[in-house]
Design brief:
Blueprint (H helix, E strand, L loop, with lengths): L12 H45 L8
Length: 65
């Protein structure tokens, strides 16, 4: 599908380059967002693991003084 352009001399030379740069920026942003989501999931998992271990290790044991 062709895009309409208000440029009277046909499609500009930089429009293809600009679109390609936009695609590259979008891919980079998606990669960064995916990395941030993975890091947040890792932090949550690490915190949950630490709470599980810490919680069980520091409870009062029956039969001990």
């Amino acid at each position: 599908m062709t895009e309409k352009s208000h440029w009277p001399f046909g499609q500009g030379e930089s429009s293809g380059e600009e679109r390609e740069l936009d695609r590259i920026r979008e891919r980079e942003m998606e990669k960064e967002q995916a990395r941030m989501r993975a890091e947040a999931a890792h932090q949550t998992q690490r915190r949950n693991n630490r709470l599980l271990v810490g919680g069980r290790a520091h409870t009062k044991k029956p039969g001990l003084s």
